[in-house]
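Ticket opened by: R.M.
Priority: normal
Category: complex prediction / small molecule

The reporter submitted a protein together with heme C and asked that the result be attached to this ticket for the collaborator who will pick it up next week. Submitted input follows.
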Amino acid sequence: MWHKVRFGVLVGMLLAGGLWATSHHHKHAHKKQQQEEKQLEGPQPLVSDTEIGLRTIPLEDEKDLKLHSYDFHKKPPGESQRFERAYENAPPMIPHDTTGLLPITKESNQCLGCHAPDVASSVGATPVPKSHLFDFRNNHPTKDGNVSDARFNCTQCHAPQANAQPLVKNNFKPVFTNKTLEFRSDFMDVVDVGVKGANTKGSSKP
Ligand code: HEC
Ligand code: HEC
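Result attached by the on-call engineer:
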C-alpha cells in the first residue's frame, strides 16, 4: 500500500516534470520562431515611405500616382532653338523632337545622319565635337574619324527637355569662362588643363 502511494507520487512528479519541461520548451521555441520571423521582416522603418520624398505615395504602388502633365519639344530639327548649356562643357540638351529617331540601334543611328561632321553643316546641325571622335581609353583619335563607340549611344548623355516645372528650386548658377561657351563646348582644348606635363607627353613638339 505504502509502496503504491510512493510509486504514484513518483509517477506524478515525473509526469509533472515532463509536462513543465515540454511546455517550457514549447514556449521557448515559440518565442524563438517569433524572433526569427521579425528578423525576416527586416528592420522596422523609422519613417514611412510616404514621408521621405515629394511623391507622398507608397513606393510599392503606382495606382494613386498623378503625374503633372508635360510635353517634350515638338519642333522638328532645324526649327528649334538650342538651349544654353547647363554648365561649361555639359552635354547639350536635345532642342528638337526625337519622334521616329529613337531607339538608336547598332544598325541605325539617325542622329549621326545629321550630326556627323561631314553632313552637319549642310543640314544646319551642330557637328559632334572632337571629343566624340577620340578614343579616350587608348588615348588617340578614332580610326577614320569615326564617332567613338563610347559616344555612339547619344541619348545616354543627351536628353530632350520637357516643359515640366522643377519640384525643388535649384540655386545652381553656372559660371562660363566666356559667352560662346554658353552654347558651344571647347572640351578638347581644355581637357589637359591642370594635368602636369600633359601637353609635352605624346606631343610631337620637343
Ligand atoms: C534631321 C536632322 C537631325 C537629326 C536626325 C537629329 N538632329 Fe539634333 N539637331 C539638328 C539641328 C538642325 C540642330 C540645331 C538646332 C535646331 O534647329 O534644332 C540640332 C541640335 C541638336 C543638339 C543641340 C546642340 C547644341 O549645340 O546645343 C543636340 C544635343 C542634338 N541635336 C542631338 C541629337 C540627337 C541625340 C539626335 C538623335 C536622337 C539628333 N540630334 C537627331 C538636326 C538633327
Ligand atoms: C558619354 C556621353 C556622351 C555621348 C554618348 C554623346 N555625347 Fe555629345 N556631348 C557630350 C558632352 C559632355 C558634350 C560637351 C563637351 C564636349 O564637347 O565634349 C557633348 C557635346 C555635343 C555636341 C555639341 C558640340 C559643340 O560644338 O558644342 C553635339 C552636337 C553632340 N554632343 C552630339 C552628340 C551625338 C549626335 C551623339 C551620338 C552620336 C553624342 N553627342 C553622344 C557627351 C556625350
